[in-house]
Design a protein that fits this description.
The chain is globular. Helix content is 42%, strand content 17%. With 278 residues, the protein is an alpha/beta fold. β1, α1 and β2 form a beta-alpha-beta unit. The longest helix has 22 residues. The structure holds zinc ion.
Length: 278
């Protein structure tokens, strides 16, 4: 497999606020800016008690780009009332993204244990469709993030790049695309073909990196920093870049192991891992 050339600067480095969980938004922004990081993906918890518009100004004043707002989704539910509430919550996420100046909301689409994945997928596309008029009026893009199949029970019924492409085809809207996360997709034998399909439709909206630990101690919070695990990061970056992707490379690491250490130490490790392994 072809490998992408090493990255030589931080002009495409974006960090998710959840990666440095110990820092409040302001501290994260200041520290990222000092470190030369170029973008930030803001998780919604970091907007709690804050004015999103002021937060966006604060981020841009520090010289960072707001790459996206993470996350909306979780559309499927057994009760119609809950599905409607999910749609309302997604509308608030879209409004917050617009106020923050984030061009994109990342969607972790949801699933319900015991409900068929086919039904959940239908509820996902129906839920996204219900928010599209608002997304259009505010010019906010929506990125379906396919999740690794280990999360098919309760986090997402969209588990491959192919099924994310299918959902985008069904919605057929220029504001609906895909958040490509190596953690969820690295194992997929159809990765190259499905990346091509996504790229041809101009729907790769975001690119998330971390690494897969062997063994994985926790299904959610044991991601590795790039280079700590087995994902062919340069090989996968070559695939997305050969297909035209030139956007931010977003470091999204949920790790109890790293969260136990000072965030400043993690930030230094991220910079090194980004240049050495991404
Ligand atoms: Zn992700």
């Amino acid at each position: 497999m072809t490998k992408a050339a090493p990255l030589s600067d931080f002009s495409r480095l974006c960090i998710h606020t959840i990666t440095t969980k110990g820092w409040e938004l302001e501290e994260a922004v200041d520290r990222y800016a000092e470190a030369g990081v170029s973008g930030v993906t803001v998780w919604r918890q970091w907007l709690e008690g804050r004015n999103p518009s002021e937060s966006g100004d604060r981020i841009r004043a520090a010289g960072l780009e707001v790459t996206s707002l993470c996350r909306g989704g979780f559309y499927p539910a057994l009760e119609e009332k809950s599905r409607k509430e999910a749609i309302e919550d997604n509308k608030r996420a879209i409004e917050d993204a617009a106020a923050l100046g984030a061009p994109l909301v990342v969607l972790v689409c949801g699933a319900v244990p015991g409900q068929s994945l086919t039904e959940s997928r239908k509820q996902i596309t129906d839920g996204i469709a219900a928010t599209l008029p608002l997304a259009e009026s505010l010019a906010v893009k929506l990125a379906i993030e396919p999740l690794h199949p280990m999360y098919a029970d309760d986090r997402s019924a969209i588990n491959t790049l192919a099924s994310a492409n299918d959902a985008c085809d069904a919605l057929n809207h220029p504001l609906v695309g895909i958040a490509f996360d190596v953690y969820h997709l690295w194992w997929d034998p159809d990765l190259e073909e499905q990346t091509k399909r996504a790229a041809q439709a101009e729907r790769i909206f975001a690119y998330h990196v971390c690494d897969w630990m062997t063994p994985t101690g926790d299904l959610l919070n044991d991601r590795g920093l790039m280079g700590e695990g087995c994902i062919d990061l340069r090989g996968i970056r070559a695939i997305v870049e050969e297909n035209g992707f030139r956007g931010m490379i977003e470091v999204e690491v949920f790790s109890d192991r790293w969260w136990d250490r000072p965030p400043g130490e993690l930030l230094e490790a991220i910079k090194e891992a980004y240049l050495q392994h991404t």
